[in-house]
Specification:
Elements lengths: L34 H4 L1 H21 L9 H13 L5 E2 H8 L6 H14 L4 E4 L18 E4 L1 H6 L7 E4 L6 E5 L6 H5 L1 E4 L4 E4 L4 H12 L15 E3 L12 E4 L1 E6 L2 E6 L6 H13 L7 E4 L7 E4 L6 H11 L3 E4 L4 E4 L2 E4 L2 H42 L6 H4 L4 H11 L13 H8 L3 H6 L2 H23 L1 H16 L8 E2 L7 H4 L4 E6 L4 E3 L6 E6 L4 E6 L3 E6 L4 E2 L4 E6 L8 E7 L6 E6 L10 E2 L8 E8 L3 E9 L9 E5 L5 E2 L6 E4 L3 E12 L4 E6 L4 E3 L5 E6 L5 E5 L3 E5 L11 E6 L6 E7 L4 E8 L7 E2 L8 E6 L5 E6 L9 E4 H4 L2 E3 L5 E2 L5 E7 L31
Parallel strand pairs: 8-17, 26-31, 41-46
Antiparallel strand pairs: 1-3, 2-3, 4-5, 6-7, 8-9, 9-14, 10-11, 11-13, 12-13, 15-16, 18-19, 18-20, 19-23, 21-22, 21-24, 22-27, 25-26, 25-28, 26-32, 29-30, 29-33, 34-35, 34-36, 37-38, 37-39, 38-42, 40-41, 40-43, 41-47, 44-45, 44-48
Length: 877
């Protein structure tokens, strides 16, 4: 429960984040009088508030200025006091920190290890545990630590630190550390206090600096979490880190082959042990099917998942996201201490306040340094005049009988020079001159003294300039920090948009559904009764009855659903392609209607009707068509006078598909004897229109992203990657794709492709024309050398290229290459034709020529070898 949940009714007003400052209450003296009993509620209320205030301010919630909890601040302060450039035993650091933190060594040790594992402020040596596997750190006597260079650079400055007495009054400790960096957002924090909780997610080092610079430049910015465990993240509902937002984080799962998967990143807050346990648990429950798991994690995460024969890798990946900790939802709650009380503020506001605080600290450092320079300039000027003017030789100085007389004499001697000084000459200044030793006077060099004073004046002028331009100075500071340390903190979490996964579509069919028509029961435990279909324990069944009613109910071990069942199957929510054909009689002697409809979603266990709900209605024909197939029905009427055609056919494909509540069209007004299926037709829904959404790297039928085309039956999707590989896949919406896609489109086997690539084996550019062949396995069409690279790929009929030369050949005229004339169409395995032997600086695609298609050449090369020089007459040498 967080503070906003109280609404000022369940907790005292002082505990509300917008209430007055939390202050310790007065102590109460216990007495034995009867009146004490009446004060117990009030005392409890005040004592509870004392405790709650202490936990909130002194233990669980970080301060907005430095982003640290008290224990973390005391650890860093203690390490700063101990710092001598060498590593210190963690046991010693813990013992030293206990001078400031009154809660025992265990809390200090745990906080120190957590800080060290974030790899930002503490340089660790020894076994500090593994955030990937969840292994703990070694004992404090075995591991060592020291402050990082980054911590020394941005966290500490005694001159700008506000101090307070420690809990025992023997030492000083910082109120907050003068951190000139968004440390809170970089490290993240989690804490639970009394009545509220704080959870700020970690963000990327470099992105925070860039955002701070944008703030100083008054430009827009956006910051999103970045987790040290990597993975993929959908932050579309991040809500600026405030309560009510959520971030979805997924493990990074890739296909090794058709029988194995590899997990290389894990979600934030999980480790390989807990992740594997969740996978095994889902496997035991039958949600997924796996053969074996190997955990090869060391420095990097590597979990191998082996699949049984026949299991789909793509559906298994979706099932892992749906039923295991491979996908988690994290709810942030940005709560910080500001003005000595808790506040709920977004991460963008925290960053703005931190940036403003950094500017203030930089300004304070400059002002302190300028005051120091002023003092150095003042004392140096006094000393120079004192020695250069020979005041120490004056008779009045030498004859002064007392210190007071000498001070007054020197003060009078400085009267002509006082207008040149920047501040008043005090008695302390003159007393300092009286302590000047003769040896220093004799060694005094006027020229060096003047040069030193000029150096001080130049530095003061530079500081004045920085103070007058504090925003550019702060921007340069951030840029310097990024240049110095930013290379160590690349983004680890990939920002993606996730397509929602329906659990019912990816769950393994781990049960079988049975029906007892005589008694009206369905369930997975009725193994001696009629088998219906495979299912899972999270599926719903849709049941149609002979009287025209239907309902949807959850699959269980055994459930009574009633008798007179005509059709039962597993219900697919939002399925618009399963079309039901129905013929029913309205009442006992009414018209016979026919209709086609889809059931996309209804309320579970609520009865619906196909008919008009007239008593005595009867369902005379019913069929379910998974792809909207049409049907031709043979209708036989009962003989009756004036009826000419007792037998006729009806094409259900002529009916429009309407809603489930539609009445339908009249089939006949006469009494029907039988209705039977005469012929099964083709789908009346046409092909399935498929789109590809580049943000989620998934196919969809909802119109999101790039339209690939209308797919029928065995149509396939062609995927060409940036590294010169291709493969063909089905248009199943559960397919997974990598993020290096260059071209994705509906596959057409008659398209001729032209590719220009650099062959790393030969160190030349090659060009080839070819057609892709049917292959579900990913194939490289530019060779097997990993250093070879694809330059251009085109599928126009007559592509043209402009080749510009570089290096020693940069003076050569650029060449225009007519690709269709340069090389014929060959196999995708062919090496192709060398473009030129000269050095190439750029290859540019020109507008293609439009002309009639020439007769195709019959040449082919399956060996992949380069053509002979005799045949290579068109090569550009």
């Amino acid at each position: 429960m967080s503070l906003d949940d109280t609404n000022n009714t369940d907790l005292p007003e002082e505990l509300n984040s917008e209430s007055s400052e939390i202050k310790p209450k007065e102590q109460h003296v216990w007495d034995n009088s009867e009146s004490t009993i009446s004060h117990l509620p009030g005392m409890y209320r005040e004592w509870f508030l004392d405790y709650a205030s202490y936990v909130i301010l002194e233990r669980a919630v970080p301060h907005v200025n430095d982003g640290l909890k008290p224990v973390q601040r005391r650890i860093l302060h203690s390490m700063r006091r101990m710092d001598d450039g060498r590593y210190n035993k963690v046991a010693n650091i813990i013992g030293n920190t206990m001078q400031f933190h009154p809660h025992g060594d265990a809390s200090i040790g745990d906080a120190l290890v957590a800080l060290g594992q974030k790899d930002l402020l503490i340089d660790c040596q020894g076994n500090w545990g593994n955030v990937f596997t969840g292994d703990g750190a070694a004992a404090p006597r075995y591991i060592e630590a020291r402050l990082t260079k980054f911590a020394q650079e941005v966290v500490f400055n005694p001159k700008t630190t506000n101090w307070k007495l420690s809990y025992d009054g023997r030492n000083n400790e910082p109120v907050t550390l003068p951190v000139k960096f968004p440390l809170l957002l970089t490290q993240g924090v989690e804490g639970i206090a009394v009545g509220l909780a704080s959870k700020l997610l970690p963000h990327n080092f470099n992105e925070l600096i860039d955002a701070s610079i944008n703030i100083l430049k008054d430009q827009p910015f956006e910051i999103l979490p970045d987790f040290h465990t990597g993975g993929m993240m959908d932050a579309s509902r991040y809500n600026d880190g405030l309560r009510g937002g959520a971030v979805k984080v997924r493990a990074k799962i890739t296909k090794v082959d058709s029988k194995s998967l590899i997990i290389s990143d894990i979600p934030f807050g999980k480790n390989t042990t807990s992740l594997i346990e969740s996978i095994l648990k889902a496997n035991d429950k039958g949600k997924i099917k796996i053969k074996k798991i190997d955990d090869n994690t060391a420095e990097n995460v590597e979990i191998m998942i082996y699949l049984p024969t026949g299991a789909s890798p793509d559906k298994t990946i979706d099932a892992l996201y749906a039923f295991t900790d491979c996908e988690v939802s994290i709810s942030p709650n940005a709560c910080v201490i500001r003005d000595n009380k808790p506040h709920f503020i977004g991460v963008s506001t925290i960053l703005r306040e931190n940036t403003d605080n950094t500017v203030k600290l930089l300004t304070s450092e400059l002002e302190i340094r300028r005051n120091e320079l002023e003092e150095m300039w003042h004392k140096s000027s006094l000393e120079r005049i004192f020695i250069e003017e020979g005041m120490y030789k004056e008779k009045g100085y030498e004859d002064a009988g007392s210190k007071e007389t000498a001070v007054k004499f020197l003060d009078k001697c400085f009267d002509p020079f006082k207008p040149k000084f920047r501040r008043e000459i005090t008695l302390d200044d003159i007393e300092t001159l009286l302590e000047t030793r003769m040896g220093r006077i004799l060694k005094f060099n006027v020229q060096k003294a003047e040069e030193y004073i000029v150096t001080l004046e130049e530095e003061m002028e530079q500081i004045d300039y920085h103070l007058a331009n504090i925003i550019p100075y702060s921007i340069d500071y951030y840029k310097r920090i990024k240049k110095q340390f930013g290379k160590n903190f690349p983004r680890k979490t990939e920002i993606r948009s996730f397509a929602s996964i329906e659990a019912s579509k990816v769950v393994v069919k781990n049960e079988k559904l049975y029906i007892n028509r005589e008694d009206g029961f369905i369930g997975t435990s009725l193994r001696k009764d009629e088998y219906v279909c495979d299912c899972s324990d999270i599926d719903d069944a849709i049941i149609f009855y002979k009287d025209g009613k239907y309902l949807i109910t959850k699959v269980t071990d055994k459930a009574f659903v009633g008798k007179n069942i005509m059709h039962i199957t597993i219900f697919k929510k939002n399925d618009k392609r399963t079309i039901y054909n129905a013929v029913y009689r309205d009442g006992k002697a009414g018209n016979v209607y026919m209709k086609r409809f889809a059931v996309t979603g209804i309320t579970r266990d609520k009865e619906y009707h196909i008919t008009k709900e007239t008593p005595g209605s009867k369902l005379m024909y019913f069929s379910a068509n998974p792809n909207g197939e049409s049907e031709i029905l043979k209708v036989v009427l009962r003989p009756k006078a004036r009826i000419r055609n007792l037998i006729f056919d009806v094409n259900m494909g002529d009916l429009a598909i309407k809603g489930r509540g539609a009445m339908g069209n009249i089939l006949t007004k006469y009494e029907v004897k039988t209705i039977a299926l005469k012929k099964k037709g083709e789908s009346t829904l046409g092909g399935r229109k498929i789109w590809f959404e580049h943000e989620t790297l998934r196919l969809n039928a909802d119109g999101r992203g790039q339209f690939l085309g209308e797919f029928h039956g065995g149509d396939q999707v062609l995927v060409i990657t940036k590294d010169g590989k291709y493969n063909l896949t089905t248009y199943d919406l559960s397919n997974h794709f990598e993020d290096n896609i260059l071209i994705i489109e509906k596959f057409k086997n008659d398209i001729v492709w032209s590719a220009v690539y650099f062959d790393a084996d030969q160190d030349f550019y090659y060009i080839k024309r070819f057609q892709f062949e049917n292959s579900n396995k990913q194939q490289s069409f530019i060779g097997d050398n990993a250093k070879s690279r694809l330059v251009k790929i085109m599928h126009v009929d007559y592509p043209r290229l402009e080749v510009k030369f570089g290096g020693d050949d940069k003076l050569r005229e650029k060449l225009i290459v007519e690709v269709a004339e340069f090389i014929g169409v060959k196999s995708w395995k062919a090496k192709g034709k060398r473009l030129t032997t000269y050095q190439i600086s750029k290859i540019h695609e020109l507008e293609p020529i439009i002309k009639d298609e020439p007769m195709p050449e019959n040449e082919s090369s399956e060996t992949g070898e380069e053509e002979d020089d005799d045949k290579n007459q068109m090569s550009l040498f």
